[in-house]
Amino acid sequence: MNNYEIADHFSLLSKLMDIHGENSFKSKSYSNAAFNIERLPAEIATMDDAELFNVRGIGEATGKKIRILQATGKLPQLEELIANTPPGIIKMLQIKGLGPKKISVIWNELGIESLGELEYACQENRLVTLKGFGAKTQESVLQNIVYFKQNLGFHLWAEVEVFSNTIVKQLLANNPDNLCSLTGDVRRQNETLEFVEIVTDIDKELINEEFGEIENAVVEYESDDCLRVTLPGQPRLKFHLTDKQHFYSKLFTTTGSDEFLTAFNSRYHIPDAPSSEEEIFIANGLDFIPPMQRETTAILDIAAQHKLPLLIQPSDIRGIIHSHSTWSDGVNTIEQMAKAAIAAGLEYLVLSDHSQSAFYAGGLKPDRIAAQHQEIDALNARLAPFRIFKSIESDILSDGSLDYSPQVLATFDLVIASVHSNLKMSQEKAMDRVLTAIRNPYTRILGHPTGRLLLSRKGYPLDHKAIIDACAEHKVVLEINAHPRRLDLDWRWIEYALEKGVLLSIDPDAHAVEGYHDTYYGVMVAQKGGLTKERNLSSFTLKQFEEFLRS
User: Between the CA atoms of 298, 302, 304 and 307, what dihedral angle is there, to the nearest 10 degrees?
Assistant: First the structure.
């Protein structure tokens, strides 16, 4: 173990001690030791004990720890701290601008334990409420998280969509006589992906030239017909190479999931040199299956019966359900949010600020609710026929109850019930908590049902069928939270929800007017589950929505 590796151990020990609020004097001494170890003129491996123990800033106590580290590869005190620290907290130390003291505040005050949770908190304007943080610090942290994530390998679909389409457009502009298309996970609109995959008949040498000129780009041949390109700070590219004659065959076989393609190949065939993907489906007597739905065996059965649904589109969204204003942790006033919705051609806004238990988000006490409702009444009088509905995102408390008395809950047009705290639950506890909330007569929408954060947090364990069955019984709407880090309810359960007659709602959970755009990502992922506009609450017209509330 060289001096730099030894110094890294003591530096991490010092930082973790600060995060855990341990003796600051000892923490400082280990930080100084790391500093001095890095600057030693000789390797510690060549020094005897007397020489090492006499080094200023190290001493006998630290020197003995170094010897243990050299002999075992471990520092017992450090190993104990690592065991008691969530991995995500340690990862935060790699984010520029976040020192141990700030990380300790984030962890202890907000309960954040991963980079994904931290990124989401920044987007929800949570860090500015903490002592020692401000808007500039929050923005800096957010930018540094994005930079760090770009080098981890996996990405959210929402993060790569524009980049992916730009690459294809650029390739076609430079090679107008060739064919080029997105394929794989990015074409199927999967929530997360490792590669941006592209099918093309462009010669591999031209692709090599195209990207090889970029500084620090790496071009690798995975096989004769597959090329990988790594660009600094961007998602990795994978090129599936083919000729013009077999382009659409290659596009088809690289688009579908393994399950889909295995089922297709066992029942159907790909015509020789098809001139389009449509030709492949027509030749087999199937309806054309859109790329995003080529996931399961079941979709082939539906296509064979010519019963594919007309999928929901972004233009089908008629209102914004689930939004936060400056009354809690939002960036914009209610009036600003309403006018932005009007400008977007929408018919209504469901304002759902946080409830009182969400103190970290400025959750509303009952007296503030009354004042907010007065403001909404005044705005509705001015902005008619557009309408703002009085809602709340009520915390589901640990026992499953909602965050207000029935008298307060009755003042809202509708209640969105969500879990925000104590997320580490057994399935039994999670089910009891969520089912109790679903049975509450004031619950109209179950918000982000599992609490997951993609690439960051799995969410609490639920029996999805039991949850959907309960929503069907109690006429509770299931939210598809459209924030690209949530996309919760998982699209894989949409089909079952539709079978049970459960209404779904694509909601942006917007904390600023810019967040309205997230409904697009919700629609994209809902298409994978076969959602139609008729079964999506936020596609209801104002009149239909009012009738829903009265029902």
Answer: 180
User: Which amino acid is it at 403?
Assistant: D
Strands 195-200 and 348-354: unpaired
Do 516 and 487 fall within a single domain?
Answer: yes
Measured CA to CA, the distance from residue 168 to residue 174 in angstroms comes to 10
CA-nearest of 504, 508, 524, 506 to 516 is 508
Residue 259: its pLDDT value, please?
A: 97
pLDDT of residue 237 exceeding 90:
yes
For the residues 432-449, what does the mean pLDDT come to?
A: 98
Say if residue 532's pLDDT is above 80.
Answer: yes
337 and 466 assigned to the same domain: yes
Q: Using CA atoms, how far apart are residues 315 and 539, in angstroms rounded to an integer? A: 9
Residue 41 binned pLDDT confidence (cut-offs 50, 70, 90): confident
Q: Specify the CATH number for the domain of residue 534.
A: 3.20.20.140
Q: Number of helices (H) and strands (E) in the chain: give both, helices first.
A: 24, 14
Q: Do the bridges between strand 155-156 and strand 218-223 make them parallel or antiparallel, or are there none, so unpaired?
A: unpaired
- Judge if 222 and 300 occupy the same domain: yes
Q: Which CATH number does the domain housing residue 109 bear?
A: 1.10.150.20
Give CA–CA dist 54/38, Å, rounded: 16
Alpha carbon 446 to its chain's center: 18
Structure tokens at 507: 């909601």
**Residue spans of beta strands (DSSP E) within 201-268:** 218-223, 226-230, 236-241
Global pTM reads 0.83
Strand partners, 196: 237
**Residue linked to tokens 């007309």:** 310
Question: What pLDDT shows up at residue 277?
Answer: 98
Domain span holding position 362 = 314-550
What pLDDT is attached to residue 55?
86
pLDDT tens digits for range 244-290: 999 999 999 999 999 999 999 999 999 999 999 999 999 999 999 99
The vertex-185 CA angle with 262 and 206, nearest 5°, equals 105
CA distance 540 to 526: 16
Residue 209 and residue 318 in one domain = no
Count Cβ atoms within 10 A of the Cβ of residue 23 and give its class: 0-12 exposed, 13-18 middle, 19 or more buried.
Answer: exposed
Is a pLDDT exceeding 80 seen at residue 179?
yes
What is the number of domains present in the chain? 4
Q: Assign 151 a pLDDT band (cuts: 50, 70, 90).
A: low
Q: Which helix (H) or strand (E) covers residue 278, if one does?
A: helix 277-283
- At 408, the amino acid letter reads V
Q: Which two tokens stand for residue 133?
A: 């943080």
Q: What is the CA radius of gyration of the chain?
A: 27
The answer, yes or no, to whether residue 525 has pLDDT greater than 80, is yes
pLDDT confidence of residue 125: 87
Q: Find residue 351's DSSP bridge partners.
A: 323, 390
Residue type present at position 499 = E
**Strands 195-200 vs 180-183: parallel, antiparallel or unpaired:** antiparallel
Distance CA 353, CA 181 (A): 42
Q: How far apart are CA 347 and CA 84, in angstroms?
A: 50
At 143, which helix (H) or strand (E)?
A: helix 135-149
Mean pLDDT for the stretch of residues 440-460: 93
